[in-house]
Design goal:
The chain is 31% helix and 23% strand. The protein is of the alpha/beta class. Strands 14-15-13-16-17-12-18 form a 7-stranded parallel β-sheet, sandwiched between helices. The structure holds adenosine-5'-triphosphate and zinc ion (2 copies).
Length: 814
């Protein structure tokens, strides 16, 4: 638990209000947490908005911590709080949470604030003064207070901005204090509701006739007609940006259409929350027996409780979340739903929107500052709502939280590796649920070992069957060594080919899963073995081939370094210089060669980079004439398309051979999840899993689709080696431009750690020893107890050229 004390506790203990307050100052040009002295007459609580002196100014700040421990500063360095602008602006528990994150992950509070809050929150808000006792008499007051009172009475709304009052009244501050004490006026912070609404250009179709160039078929008039046609098809109105993109045209062309009287350009105000398409209203589904049982249990939980919802793929977990949340909104409470990646959210958010309409808001780190800010403002209004977001949304400042859901809780993207704080949204969600005293639901078909082991201390709920008793797909394991032996050199086994042939006739769709992105993982020389590497990073370059006739390029996935693929080996000049492996591009090209009748869509980080691309590609696949979706890890995450009957796993081997103690767990989870995309509709599903290691225990476990036996074996191994979820880890990552300095710093730190009772592994170069010119070393601490040593102090021993990242409970050991 946090070491923070509530004001009530402090008062009980000391009989006084807290003496010191840490204030987050966030104004243009400076952002930081500073300590101020409180005043005996002020009862400052975390979450209050304060006015504090800063330099020569008075600025707004947020009280984040209060205490009676004198800070490590000279008395003359500490200034006093001016006043409380707005008490309880944030729930106090919110600041306890951020504080707890900072302490647990051993980073500064400011760094936590940076992931949690939109920048410049206070700078955009305005402090105002309002008269609350209209019949107040001025007689007994000092002159400044009298003037303020007079001023406020003269205002129609009985209120003015503090800035205005200060300009009108000399000594306004003292006058205000008196009035506040009398409770005749109140001081409040107005969130910038009306400030700078964003305007966006809309194009409206006025006439398809107009005075198009001259009626003749010049190239430009044909172009213009096309644009008008597109506008017409879209109901006569589109955002300018959408129209430009859609028609591949420029704004001067559209402006010319306006001059010709065909269209009208108009600035419109938009709320900058993520633009979502209209979704049809949807009513609650009649639950299956298992779903109903689970929901009944969830409804009985009203205080903090950790609930593991273990449901096989396609068992209808989302429907359970929806029906768990509905009564909550009715009671005026809000819910937070965390999902691993934004690629998965379009379908999920649509389902939530269909049920709850505009009470749903999407919050993730890819939002622009403006969008984040607007979404934030909506949250602080306190109206009951559902926030869906990725890991940073765990910090969404929703007041009155009734439930937190973490869907696909096993997913490692809930953990932030870089930059600090290296937090795990699952841990933070748990602390938050504890602080808010609300239930936390962790949902997964393949729970993480951490959660599984912990489920003894939580509520276990299970959905063992798919909805409507649909069967799990049948999984065939294909030994690729045998394929080669039987003279099938193709990346598709004979059984996968047979299934692919049947797709079109049966009017069904398939997914092909590849473990890596890009055309292949690396390029090497078949004569001398030379491997093309990135000059900045310690990784091989990946081969990218845009289309058959394009010049192939090589790219680094860490720093984006790009070069043309050389014709010959740079080392021995051999012309046998080829790419290996199989990535999405190669699979797409092979399909085009072998099955020209099948239409494919590529779904990986290259094709989904643009905003909204996930949604566009998935809906193209679901509603268009494409037969195959070819993709990477993204395919494993929650895609729910009833037409998909076939899942082909091109090669499972890359997953099995990762150098990480969690490799088996991850491989099992990924393979079960991707297999689970098949047969979710009325037609049963079929999975072809290709591998060079069919006897591998993970492959065997996946084929049987039995979670518990797999986990039991895996836990035994972890226990034997004292790895998580038994023994805990802390990883220290060091990096810098000078290899020698990084190395010697790592050695110095490791020496100091040797005195602790914990096991010190390393120092050693990281698996990827250089990224973006920075050399990387690491030290791994294997803890012998649950007590996490404080390694913050080691920071002072690092030269300024070496950066140290502390990763508590690391997920990524590369
Ligand atoms: N009670 C029900 N009756 C009919 N259809 C349902 C019911 N519950 C859920 N469904 C449908 O079943 C499908 C699978 O549900 P859902 O996507 O929630 O499963 P899931 O458990 O989240 O799966 P996964 O973990 O594989 O993503 C969805 O299309 C959903 O609309
Ligand atoms: Zn060579
Ligand atoms: Zn690089």
């Amino acid at each position: 638990m946090s070491e923070l004390q509530s004001v009530a506790e402090l008062k009980a203990e000391y009989g006084v209000s807290p003496a010191w307050v840490d204030v987050l100052v966030d104004c243009p040009g400076s952002q930081g947490v500073y300590t101020y002295q409180s005043r005996p007459d002020l009862l400052v609580q975390p979450g209050d908005i304060l006015s504090v002196p800063f330099g020569a100014q008075q600025v707004g700040g947020i009280a984040v911590r209060v205490g009676n421990q004198p800070p490590d500063l000279l008395p003359e360095q500490i200034r006093s709080i001016d006043s409380i602008v707005s008490a309880g602006f944030f729930p106090a528990s919110y600041w306890s949470l951020l504080d707890q994150v900072a302490r647990y992950y051993q980073t500064s509070l400011m760094q936590v604030v940076r992931v949690a809050l939109p920048p410049g929150l206070l700078a955009r808000s305005q402090r105002r003064i309002r008269l609350i006792k209209p019949d107040a008499s001025e007689a007994s007051l000092n002159s400044a207070a009298q003037q303020i009172l007079k001023l406020l009475k003269s205002s129609k709304t009985k209120d003015y901005s503090w800035q205005f009052v200060q300009r009108q009244v000399k000594g306004a501050n003292r006058g205000l204090q008196d009035l506040l004490k009398l409770n005749w006026v109140e001081s409040y912070l107005e969130p910038p509701a009306t400030i700078r609404p964003q305007l966006r250009q809309a194009v409206i179709l006025v006439s398809t006739q107009g005075e198009l160039s001259d009626g003749s078929a010049t190239q430009s008039s044909v172009r213009q007609r096309e644009i008008l046609e597109v506008l017409k098809r879209n109901g006569g109105e589109m955002w300018l940006t959408d129209l430009l993109q859609h028609c591949r045209t420029t704004s001067p062309t559209v402006k010319r259409l306006q001059e010709q009287g065909c269209v009208l350009l108009q600035g419109r105000e938009v709320l900058r929350s993520e633009h979502a398409p209209d979704v049809e209203q949807d009513a609650a589904k009649v639950l299956t027996h298992h779903q109903a049982e689970v929901l009944k249990k969830i409804h009985t939980v009203t205080a903090f409780e950790k609930i593991l919802l273990h449901g096989v793929t396609g068992s209808g977990k989302t429907e359970v979340y929806l029906q768990a949340i509905a009564p909550m909104l009715q009671r005026g409470q809000s819910a937070l739903v965390l999902v691993p990646e934004i690629g998965l959210t379009p379908q999920l958010t649509d389902r939530f929107r269909a049920r709850f309409g505009d009470r749903v808001c999407v919050y993730h780190s890819a939002l622009s500052d403006g969008e984040r800010f607007d979404t934030w403002r909506q949250m602080l209004t306190g109206s009951p709502q559902v926030v869906i977001g990725t890991r940073s949304a765990v910090f969404a400042p929703l007041p009155n939280l009734g439930l937190i859901v973490l869907d696909e809780e096993h997913d490692s993207s809930f953990k932030q590796d870089q930059p600090a704080p290296c937090y795990h949204a699952r841990s933070v969600a748990q602390w938050r649920a504890e602080l808010e005293n609300c239930p936390l639901i962790l949902g997964s078909a393949t729970p993480s070992l951490e959660t599984w082991l912990d489920s003894q201390s939580s509520t276990y709920l299970s959905l063992p069957k798919r909805i409507l008793d649909r069967p799990l797909p049948k999984i065939d394991i294909v030994d690729m060594r045998k394929e080669l032996h039987d003279r099938n050199p193709s990346i598709f086994s004979r059984s996968l080919q047979a299934q692919l042939k049947k797709l079109k006739e049966n009017n069904q769709k398939g997914l092909l899963f590849i473990h890596r992105r890009g055309h292949s993982t690396f390029v090497s020389c078949r004569s001398c073995g030379y491997v093309m590497e990135c000059p900045n990073c310690d990784v091989s370059l990946s081969y990218h081939h845009v289309h058959e006739t394009a010049q192939p390029i090589l790219r680094c996935h860490y720093c984006n370094y790009t070069q043309l693929q050389p014709q010959r080996c740079p080392s021995c000049s051999s012309s046998y210089f080829k790419n290996f492996g199989s990535g999405t591009q190669r699979v797409v090209q092979e399909i085009a060669k072998l099955f020209p009748e099948l239409k494919t869509i590529r779904f990986d980080s290259d094709t989904t980079r643009a905003k909204g691309a996930h949604r566009a590609l998935l809906s193209q696949f679901a509603h268009g004439d494409a037969d195959l979706l070819v993709g990477t890890q993204m395919l494993t995450k929650g895609i729910d398309l009833p037409q998909v009957t076939l899942v082909g796993i091109i090669s499972a081997d890359g997953l099995l051979n990762l150098a990480d103690f969690r490799a088996s767990e991850r491989a099992f989870q990924t393979l079960v999840q991707v297999a689970g995309r098949a047969g979710r509709g009325t037609e049963p599903g079929r999975v072809i899993l290709q591998t060079y290691a069919p006897e591998h225990p993970v492959i065997q476990a996946v084929q049987r689709q039995q979670y518990e036996p797999f986990v039991a074996t895996e836990l035994e191994q972890r226990a034997a080696l004292n790895y998580p979820p038994y023994g805990r880890l802390v990883l220290l990552r060091l990096s810098g431009l000078n290899e020698q300095t990084v190395r010697s710093t790592a050695e110095l730190l490791a020496d100091q750690l040797l005195h602790s009772e914990d096991e010190v592994l390393g120092p050693a170069p990281a698996t990827i020893a250089k990224i973006n010119q920075r050399y990387r070393w690491q030290i791994l601490l294997k803890l012998t107890s649950d007590r996490i040593p404080n390694v913050m102090e080691l920071r002072s021993q690092c030269p300024s050229t070496v950066s140290l990242t502390i990763d508590v409970d690391p997920m990524n050991l590369m």
